[in-house]
Amino acid sequence: MRGLGFAALSLHVLLCLVNGVSSRRTSSYVRSEFPSTDMPLDSEWFATPKGYNAPQQVHITQGDYDGKAVIISWVTPSEPAPSQVFYSKEENRYDQKAEGTMTNYTFYDYKSGYIHHCLVDGLQYNTKYYYKIGTGDSAREFWFQTPPAIDIDASYTFGIIGDLGQTFNSLSTLQHYLKSGGESVLFVGDLSYADRYQHNDGIRWDSWGRFVERSTAYQPWIWNSGNHEIEYRPDLGETSTFKPYLHRYSTPYLASKSSSPMWYAVRRASAHIIVLSSYSPFVKYTPQWMWLKGELKRVDREKTPWLIVLMHAPMYNSNDAHFMEGESMRAAFEKWFVKYKVDLVFAGHVHAYERSYRISNINYNVTSGNRYPVPDKSAPVYITVGDGGNQEGLAWRFSDPQPDYSAFREASYGHSTLQLINRTHAVYQWNRNDDGKHVPTDNVVFHNQYWASNTRRRRLKKKHLRYESLEGLMSML
Ligand SMILES: *[C@@H]1O[C@H](CO)[C@@H](O)[C@H](O)[C@H]1NC(C)=O
Ligand SMILES: *[C@@H]1O[C@H](CO)[C@@H](O)[C@H](O)[C@H]1NC(C)=O
Ligand SMILES: *[C@@H]1O[C@H](CO)[C@@H](O)[C@H](O)[C@H]1NC(C)=O
Ligand SMILES: [Fe+2]
Predict the structure, then answer these.
(1) Mean pLDDT score of the chain
(2) Residue 68: pLDDT band with limits 50, 70, 90
(3) Res 465 pLDDT > 50
(4) Mean pLDDT, to the nearest integer, of 275-284?
(5) Could you tell me if 305 and 287 are in contact, meaning their C-beta atoms sit under 8 angstroms apart?
(6) Domain count along the chain
(7) Which pTM value belongs to this model?
(8) pLDDT of amino acid 33
(9) What residue owns the CA closest to ligand 2's atom 7?
(10) What DSSP letter does each residue of 66-134 carry, written as one string?
């Protein structure tokens, strides 16, 4: 089934490549549906579960380095409750138990509910687990599937979502994603947009948690923060940064030797995923810089061939919105991305979709004139997926003409999926929210930067060389 689908898609992609050879593309699609307004608090999509103090806003994320653990988080709104998870491989059995911790916080005049985080570890790969939280009439039951073991050819499908918010467009994005076959989400920052409300009203963090629960309770979302998570409000007496985000969303940062939940790495199936914080210090000698230097050395492409980086502010963006905001991180890290042959860099922040060719600008410095990005086979592809659908609306002003480094761009809402087939091939698509229909608007087969290059490339069968030469042609443009 998967093989057949791949063959059909390959043909389609091949045709796209042929068409794509001659031109970069700025889509002319214009979205007219749904205004960018948040769904009302009494919307059915924010409904609270039945029962007194019932667990709500349930979300899970990877709990270790290699995918044999999850962190299960939830909120009990009315009073403290045990942070216990009962779970098992069989439905209705729940004979295993894990203990977590509870926290709460205030933000100006908002008081949070009781936020629980519970690590469930020692799990088996490729296994469905059922879990139960809460007690009596208020108990709730969910399930999740663990990933395959870390393996060079493990296939796995990620969704990529950014800047989601809680509008009717956000709902459309989430509903499309739920039908995509994605097994885990790489989230590129800007979650609830609660900071758009007076006093950063935490009630909108709660409604967002209930809204996304239909996905987050059943599959891990790999979290990253954006500027809307900073919530630095000295005028309200709130002088720490990322306060609600850090209380509500856990990350397994210690497992990757990070000193902060804001930046970390996980390995899942055949992917090594590095999460970077755009709004934490990252210049030379800072903790994030030192950590990334070490983490890139730990990447083992013989075990996890796919090297993926997530950040919020894109390094390459040809939209007027947030133009060059990722430039400082580019100056700090781009050399490493090229040196370590990163496959893909996903970002959000700009409320539109854009994909680059493999380009780099690492020869530029302040005393040399080579300031234009050039085709670079070792460079990642940069993809901006800040088009989740939040209340700020679309970023529709692209720079004109489209720069050479930009392959495809469109100002409308959607999400992406990345299906890792094996060590050499991945099928990537960006899916526009096209009102009930599934429309993969941007399709690319990516060849692994480590396994499909140089000497390894020669070992590939002849039929694959066809794709390679086409891609090579494209990257020359
Ligand atoms: C946390 O909850 C406890 C128990 O209800 C309460 O006494 C305390 O003030 C709360 N702390 C914060 C920071 O809201
Ligand atoms: C600046 O860039 C030029 C051109 O790439 C290079 O020759 C030169 O060595 C660079 N200068 C420094 C100090 O790295
Ligand atoms: C990976 O999958 C592709 C597409 O099915 C196939 O053509 C290729 O031979 C596979 N590569 C390896 C190394 O198995
Ligand atoms: Fe943002």
Answers:
(1) 91
(2) very high
(3) no
(4) 98
(5) no
(6) 1
(7) 0.91
(8) 63
(9) 368
(10) SSS-EEEEEEESSS----EEEEESSTTT--EEEE-EEE--EETTEE--EEEEEEE-SPPTT-EEEEEES
Q: Which residues contact 4 (CB under 8 A, 6 or more apart)?
A: none
Q: Which domain holds residue 180?
A: 150-189+262-476
Distance CA 100, CA 114 (A): 12
Could you tell me the CATH number of the domain that includes residue 319?
Answer: 3.60.21.10
- The DSSP H or E segment spanning 337 is helix 327-339
> Ligand 2: does its nearest atom lie under 6 Å from the Cβ of 92?
no
Evaluate whether residue 308 is within a structural domain. yes
pLDDT-based confidence at 312, cuts 50/70/90? Answer: very high
Ligand 3 atom closest to the CA of 463, numbered from 1: 7
Q: What is the rounded average pLDDT of the residues 144-166? A: 98
In a domain, 255, yes or no: no
Band (287; pLDDT cuts 50, 70, 90): very high
The answer to whether residue 125 is domain-embedded is no
Count CA atoms within 13 Å of residue 78 on its CB side. 10
Quote the ligand 3 centre to 421 CA distance (angstroms).
7
Per-residue tokens: 147:
């990933």
Active site (annotated) includes residue 322: yes
Q: Assess whether pLDDT exceeds 50 at residue 409.
A: yes
* Residue 105 included in any domain: no
Instruction: Name the closest ligand to CA 368.
Output: 2
